[in-house]
Amino acid sequence: MKTTSLLLAGALMCATASAQSVITRISGGEHYFRYDGQIQPVLDLAVAGDTVILGGGQYTLTTSIVINQPIVLIGTGVRQDSSLAYGGRTVIAGSVNINLNIASTASGTEIHGIATVNFGKVQLISPFPNNCRFVRCAFEDLRLGNGVNGSSANSTVIDECIIDGMDVSKAPNTLIRNSVIRTLTYASESSNTEVRNCIILGIPSTNDEVHYENCIFATTSNSAITVTERSTYVNNLFVGNGGGFSIAFGPLPTHSGNLPAETILSGPNGAFVNVAYTTAYNFDSDYHVSPPYQGAGSDGSDIGIYGGAVPWKDGGLPFNPHWTELNGPGSTTNGTLPNVTIRGSAQTH
Q1: pTM for the whole thing?
Q2: What is the distance between the alpha carbons of residues 346 and 348, in angstroms, rounded to a whole number?
Q3: Is the pLDDT confidence value at 102 over 90?
């Protein structure tokens, strides 16, 4: 399913005027609106190729929801400072027992610009959809299947996401690019997982045959670490927290061209421009690499999330046109609204 790259600006304004109370479904060139903030009834009406737009604000679910058709689900983005014109970022909340499920009949589904908070899992469910894509989202838990029990979900792509827990579930041909991953689990030899230009908050040790390239592994350790995971490491940077930090490779990994270990996280002589040590992504930090690592990628671009084929976009807006500013007076003058300011923006690739 091809993603529609242009949506009518007027429809977008209507869809977000009342924050999370309005959900827009675009189907066959027509626009349908729901005003009670209930997501599942909109998904139940969706047919293959529809676009569903969630406004800014929080959608608190009391039961799990499921996507049964291949759709494009779009929020306002995951950064509060970039989505102010929409009432803030789009957040799906609930509890750890409530999930967003993508069924096998929804192969080709895309999710853009949505965050989860105090939520369960965003997950692909058996018998598993193929060719799903997640772009500029922030998920607490993304699962491509049933963990150690596996998944047949083929060719999942994760671009520019922030993910606390990424469970590959042995799903074949998984591609993770330009994302920040806190934990990565259950990638196996059969999954052919590729992780490119990512920031890994820690050093994974339980996967098999992952291809890591142009990534930055950032740890709070200030001592020697041995990489033991049976995976391939090409042109990566390992960053620790002090002069005692070093990296060695055990007998199982395959490795080539990795940069010398960095003992300083932040500053002109460190790895990043301005990042405080943390075990989670920090929206206030600057993850551009410092001058020593600019152009250090195997393709000549920066190592980390700002290099590679899909460089990280500051602001994290979804691909569709967005209002970045909607300002006007509270009342009319002679029947008109004077001095109205409307600004728009979109990010593509």
Answers
A1: 0.86
A2: 7
A3: yes
What is the pLDDT averaged over residues 34-42?
95
| Token couple for 15 | 């869809």
- Average pLDDT on 139-168 reads 96
Specify the pLDDT at position 29: 92
Asked if pLDDT for residue 320 goes beyond 60, the answer is no
pLDDT attached to residue 329 = 62
Whole-number mean pLDDT of the chain? 87
Beta bridge partners of 100: 65, 122
